[in-house]
Amino acid sequence: MHVTSAGPAVASVAKAAAVLQTFTPLTSTLSVRQLAQRTGIPRSTVHALCSTLCDAGLLERVTGRGYQLGSTLVTLGGHVIDRTGLVAAAERPLADLSLHAGEEVHLAQLVESWVVYLDRRAGTRAVPMRNRVGLRALAHRTGCGRAALAMVPRAECHRRILDGCRQDRVARPDLGELDAALEHVRAAGHIVSSDFQPGRTSIAAPVLDTAELPVGGVSIAASSDVVTAARVREIAPRVLRLAAEISRHLVDAAA
């Protein structure tokens, strides 16, 4: 990410933001040299920025490896999550949900091009899954994310997807194929996805706020070998009811 300055008063802030935004789940630790290469900022400036960001708790030094995001960002990220009210709105519906053996429910918040997983609960005989609380993933790669993106206008949806791929340095998807999948969400209210983790299939639906805009998504997932067409027909109404109930709690809380 190459930074241009609008003036001396904001240049250092823009450069610090560029450094922070370089970190991703796949690149959690970066050296000064790597940060300089990826931002286009001189190494001496990157070194000074990293020292200042460490003093503020926004970065942490990793001996012999460079820097990683700091613990202060956990608090700041928590403020962003709390302001939507999604965790509070989902608390009762998730507590009351009955899960079958081998099923898991996941709650994720849509944050620009990504989703952040906020809750994960399993029935008996839980199966290993990549989803974990705090995990950030490109929205278009996940069931919860696709469900939410389907409720975003197409041009804006494409912008978010392409921006996320650019920032995370991954190949862009076939937007035509993705549009067809998102159209199914708009028609049926849910999406069946097996892309995020091989061998696991999720059925997801969007969670909407008072303006009918997507806040995130909720899904029920299980091993793909047991998610037959008949099982999808059984799970989908449960997911739709769950998403509707969480959305209702969001609306009630805002009233």
Strand content: 15-25%
Low-confidence stretches: 1-9
Mean pLDDT, nearest integer? 87
CATH homology group of the largest domain:
GAF domain
The whole-angstrom Rg is 20 Å
> Residue share in helices?
40-55%
CATH fold topology of the largest domain: Beta-Lactamase
Order of helices and strands: HHHEEHHEEEHHHEEEH
Distance between the termini: 41 Å
Describe the structure in brief:
Helix content is 47%, strand content 20%. With 255 residues, it is α+β, with helices and mostly antiparallel strands.
Characterization of the model:
With 255 residues, the protein is an alpha+beta fold. The protein has two domains: 8-70, Orthogonal Bundle (Arc Repressor Mutant, subunit A), CATH 1.10.10; 78-254, GAF domain (Beta-Lactamase, 2-Layer Sandwich), CATH 3.30.450. 47% of the residues lie in helices and 20% in strands. It has helices spanning 8-21, 32-39, 43-55, 72-84, 86-96, 143-149, 154-168, 175-188, 229-254, and strands spanning 59-62, 66-69, 104-111, 114-122, 136-138, 191-193, 200-208, 214-223. The strands form two sheets. Strands 5-4-3-8-7-6 form a six-stranded antiparallel β-sheet, sandwiched between helices. A two-stranded antiparallel ribbon has the order 1-2. α2 packs across α3.
